[in-house]
Design goal:
Keywords: Disulfide bond, Electron transport, Redox-active center, Transport. The protein has 108 residues and is an alpha/beta fold. It is built from four helices and five strands. Strand 2, helix 2 and strand 3 form a beta-alpha-beta unit. The protein is globular.
Length: 108
Amino acid sequence: MSDNIVHVTDSSFEEEVLKSDVPVLVDFWAEWCGPCKMIAPILEAVAVEFAGKIKICKIDVDANSSTPQKFSVRGIPTLIIFKGGNAEATKVGALSKTQLLDFINAAL
């Protein structure tokens, strides 16, 4: 994984995501999830493109169960944009780069 994507856990979620000064896109994913693997390189590219404007984080739902439960994550990948500690927008399923950019731009 790259330096542009922050891997968060149940214990670091509040500090990294909810208390962030910039909007945060969180990817709720799992190692066995095909669509999650499909979207990973797209998230990587977007993390570079939007550096400083939005923070990209990933949380493994298998290793961290309380955070996905708190935000009603039922399917993966689930992408949630947080601003000022609040979940502002949600998309479930793999997105194309164009769809992902539209999702981010609409939330920013």
